[in-house]
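Good morning C.,

I know you're traveling, so I'll keep this short. The sequence:
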Amino acid sequence: MIGGGGAFAASLPRRVEIFGHRGASALRPEHTLASYAKAIVDGADYIEPDLCVTKDGVLVARHENNIIQTTDVAKRGEFADRKTTKTVDGQQQEGWFVEDFTLAELKTLRAIERLPQLRPQNAKFDGQFDIPTWQEIIDFAAAESATRGRMIGLVPELKHSTYFAGIGLPLEDRFLASLAAHDYPQRCPLEIQSFEIANLRYLRGKLGRKPNMRLMQLVEPAAGKPADVVKAASGPSYAEMVTPPGLAEVARYADVIAPPTRAIIPLNADGKLGAPTPLVADAHKAGLLVHIWTFRPENYFLAADFRTGTDPAFRNEAGSIREIQTYIRTGIDGFFSDDPGLGRRALDGL
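The tokens, ready to paste straight into the viewer:
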């Protein structure tokens, strides 16, 4: 066995773990302390902060560095001149970007719901919460752990590593320093994720293998190549990474492979689930755990097998639970969910 999920995986009983995707983002605006708190209350094993870096070098939780969809920056006249167009990981975007703001400036902004048409109940929280720093999230998880008497895992994702390095704001050493500066990440379940390869290899070299830590290689087989591979003009595509030889190579530096749900059970032309792929078995054979993303409870996101009615915004709890259970039966080791409470109910139902 090459990877074996690391010492951490070997030290725990076999179980399916629930990762609160951006917190409980189906129920609260994503990447806010309120979202993380709801995920913890509802039974998530881990909470997920996606990490970007500010102009003054502070790690903060945003799913991407463009904050136009998740903050009120577009309504803030004092920052109107910071609207710009950038190319990030090969995609041209217009908006406002984390790296153009100091932390103090970002803290004046307020979080808003990304998907108000599908999640109008979340939009009611617009303006109530700020953008948390990685340090604040660590402290929050430690406090919740002490209060609840259970360890709250952290599953940070390093976002746009190649891009940030290219503008003089590399993430990795800042992230390593943050781990060394706090007690909680030294002992809590910690799973570090990235869609890129070089940063995970670098972290493995610096961190080694620790009992509480895993590295997670995110993959999206339909999406081409990782950003660092594109820049280097050398390396595997995501599709190559999920072949048996590719998985064996991933297991040299990572403990977990993390594909999207439809790479495990794809959709047929009618939108219903097809036959499972061999990816779970192949990954396990390579010594990797399989953590998949992302389950969402609205009709819009469900396979046709599990939808009820025609309203895309309908919060379909029963259908979501059935869909999650179908995927659990393929042998996955964990999953990301926008609604960890439904994930917990799905597991309890089995």
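Safe travels,
E.
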